[in-house]
Predict the structure of Methyltransferase domain-containing protein.
Amino acid sequence: MATPGSDGTAGAPPAGETGDTTTLIGRPADRYLDEAADHLAAVKDEILRRLRVRPGHRVLDVGCGNGTDALELARHVGDAGEVVGVDVSEEAVAGAIGRGLAAGAGVSFQVASVYALPFPDASFDACRSERMVQHLEDPVAGVREMLRVTKPGGRILVADPDHGMWAPDLADRETTRAVLAWWFDNVRNPWIGRRLPGVLRAAGARDVHVTVMPVVLRGVAAADGLTGLMDALRHAGDAGVVPAERARALREEAARRDADGGFVMYGAIALAEGRRPE
Ligand SMILES: C[S@@+](CC[C@H](N)C(=O)[O-])C[C@H]1O[C@@H](n2cnc3c(N)ncnc32)[C@H](O)[C@@H]1O
């Protein structure tokens, strides 16, 4: 089966592991993550609220990408607090450092993998990761390491999409299902959203709780921007995953609805939270 090079809401999966995140969904990673942040603003706000970050807290963002969320966290922990962002991608960390300097914020960034965080046990009051665990070969090991560096009783929050739940408003169900399954199976853990509570428990978290937030993409540009929908339809036809004429018909249908102002695509992101045992 051909591999499409999609990343769903999130970065071509093999790239996420290797650190080569210069492009995501065929566009510069930095631009992709900025666009995604616009679509996911409500999710990011909810993560922040649930982390219960306070002035003076020391907080870690794992898989921090271009640093947007770490910079926002820095505003909440204040001068007495500290935020650290880590990412396995050198390009991402270089971009995040640039943003941090431009913002003059008290936040630092470094290259590190979630599997080997360069911090002693119990270093942070809280730890977050967003759209990162979906790329991991071993999600439990990654979350266990996040718990290790969190203080006893401290909170971790892991947010990831469930790529089995994307619902574009297209009439041909059979073709749509086939294209979406093919496209999102390119993510290492496409169903991680529903697996997250089990992953946190297996990693040793206590008081595990999950909630699911909707993602509503209005218009083809938004759907394509976050998930690569139109690329998926194009490549699935070219690769023979579905008959080319049916894939083309779906693209035309999406464009027609878009012109009417009626095209939507829904999805879901799971926010799983827990504590390191006391
Ligand atoms: C889709 S991006 C999300 C970035 C950021 N959390 C955000 O919400 O904008 C996923 C990030 O996870 C990073 N990543 C993937 N595997 C990782 C690992 N093993 N350790 C740390 N970061 C990783 C990638 O380099 C990428 O920057």
